[in-house]
Putative conjugative transfer protein TraU (Legionella steelei), 330 residues
Amino acid sequence: MMNRLITRFIVLLLLSSLSGVHASQCKGHFINPITDVCWNCLFPLTIGSSEVVKSSYPDTKNPGNPLCLCPTPIGERLGVTIGYWEPAALVDVTPKPWCMVNLGVQLNVTKKGLGGSQMPETDGRGAFYYVHWYKYPLVYWLQVLTSLGCMETEDFDILYPSELDPTWNDSELAFVLNPEAVLFTSPPARASCAFDATKALAGTAVNSLFWCQGAQGSTYPLTGFVAHQASPISTAALLAERVDFKLHRPPTPAIRDSIGQDWPAVCHTYASSIMPKDRYRYQLVNTLPEAHRCHPFGQSVISWEAGHTYPGDGDNFGFLIWKKRNCCFL
């Protein structure tokens, strides 16, 4: 009995020492859904095209008809068309491989994955980060709504770890798989991003300018490299938006979106080969949470980034991604 207690004590000491080593290398914490989440970002809430709960945040187009008739396992049912913003995903952006910022954990992965496990070299102006995208069905967990067609119901899961993506740190391979990138790295294409940034500052970015991510920069290349890092937070936001765009890409899109049209269109979600930027917001939740507001994709970080980084945090960032949900509430 005494030997077992001694063994357990030694194991606990070893685990605590490992946790300390990991904590010094990888900053972050599992977010608190009460204190770290901006619940005002859920709004505006609409029924049909009418705002039931108003918000200062920009909204997308909503169905004009407040009623809908959608299929269920027991036949078609009459419901109400609603629109709101759903917390749908968590995103880590980190220079350290396998640093799960939003879990507060450093995974001890020593073998190189398909994309390598060491941070590639960059020049003094550029940067490289790894990104992890998690499914995060918070509305379903908390039972904020009761209609299953109006929320994500899949389990919490890591949908995309960039360490296992061979294109994430290989620009040549990424170009082979996405040759259209050459069209959008020219000066005229990049100049059009200034217009996208202006629109994002006033409201939401322009969906048709899919090669731009507003003030953050260019969607391409679809890698973890950023040629000119304006600031760590701006770069982190850009890479979160890039991965969202990447996960929308055919032939196997991992993210589906609802649309603001009358039934039967509002009854379903759809694969979009081009990410609808105006249907996404992000909120900083790690390592210094910004719990009182969120930001449309592409909007400049200049007005709020001060005070959300400090020396020694290792430039580890975590975002909560909000997605516009139009659905038939049954």
